[in-house]
Amino acid sequence: MNAPESRIQPATTAALKFAGKRLREGALVAFPTETVYGLGGDATNGQAIARIFAIKSRPSFNPLIVHLYDLAAAEKVAGFDDRARALARRFWPGPLTFVLKRRADTKVSELASAGLDTVAVRAPANDVARTLLKAAGRPIAAPSANRSGHVSPTAAEHVAASLGTAVDLILDGGTCTIGIESTVLDLSGERAVLLRPGAVTAEMLNREIGAIDLADASDEKRPRSPGMMDRHYAPSIPVRLDATAVEPGDALLSFGAHAIAGFAAERNLSEKGDLTEAAANLYRYLRELDWSGFRTIAVMPIPEEGLGLAINDRLRRAAAVTEGAAAIRPKPKRRRRKQEAKTG
Ligand code: TXA
Ligand code: MG
What pLDDT score was predicted for residue 99? Predict the structure, then answer.
């Protein structure tokens, strides 16, 4: 009964009520959002937050996103200005996270903000997430429910394979519809800065509030968003981008119709070349092709437009080989790797 899968429960009304109670008691509950599965804990409970960092092997300088039911709840945690309010009214609930100044009177643990004077807040759109937030009745900190630096989970079984029995409960709400993490927009200063591209694109933000700066983490010694490290979202075998041909032993991650032949395995992100479909399939397919028997994962070019920007951002991080990589990427345990390959 100790198999990781035994932690998975269908997200029924009863299970959601129970999960809300467990969160208030300090337990960690993984739950689906429209983007990826989150590893949730009571954001006001320092011990619960510390356990999230420990389970993920997440560096303690990398702050978490605090999930709220709606704008009214978020305004109790963070200081909203006119821009943030306008965007929240337009895009919440949904895949958009704001980095804002923490309110001095918030009960959210400083650990969740990693000691910064800012806090990331988001109201997710997924029904299971919303019902859970209602049931918990407090802010829920939830990073993606994977080990730090690895591929984010888009299904309950990915969470079980990645975090095993370290999680108290995994609510199964099916596959995530969007499939890549929320857009992160820093509104804590005068300029609006896009820290992480996502389904709410820079053009969509620009239409509401005017000019948006694109964060360039490579410029700075210390990136503005601690999570914007070069290598991230990474499988265990090398990833090669913009592939137009394969070498023997390569697994091919394709996009649209193509004439490439000779690969050892293939997953097509979207045969009809649809970026929304590609985003939803991205992490599942990266997991499925992440097997030590393959030489590399060769990835066909993805158009750099709309959701393609977010997809390419994640793929570039998956492919990056940097000195920082070892520091942020704990060595996978052999057994865990195999499990992931099997269930992924
Ligand atoms: O879609 C999502 O956002 C998912 C689901 C579960 O909601 N969550 C997620 O969380 O992706 P996480 O922790 O994996 O990514 C949060 C990102 C990190 O890059 C982190 O550095 C950044 O947001 N972040 C959080 N708080 C911040 C802050 N105060 N200032 C700058 N960046 C912050
Ligand atoms: Mg993450």
Answer: 98
Q: Range of 278's domain?
A: 239-319
61 CA distance to ligand 2 middle (Å): 14
Let me know whether 154 and 83 are in one domain.
yes
Residue nearest to atom 33 of ligand 1 (CA): 225
Please list every protein residue whose CB sits less than 6 Å from any atom of ligand 1: 33, 35-36, 38, 62-65, 97, 99, 113, 116, 118-120, 122, 124, 142-144, 181-182, 184, 195-196, 225-228
Tokens matching residue 185: 């927009």
Ligand 1, atom nearest to 145 Cα: 6
| pLDDT for 344 | 27
130 with 30, same domain?
A: yes
Q: What is the mean pLDDT of residues 295-312?
A: 97
Find, among 112, 23, 122, the residue nearest to 70 by Cα: 122
Regarding whether 15 and 123 lie in a shared domain, the answer is yes
β-strands 140-141, 213-214 pairing: unpaired
The CATH number of residue 67's host domain is: 3.90.870.10
Bridge partners for 9 per DSSP: 171
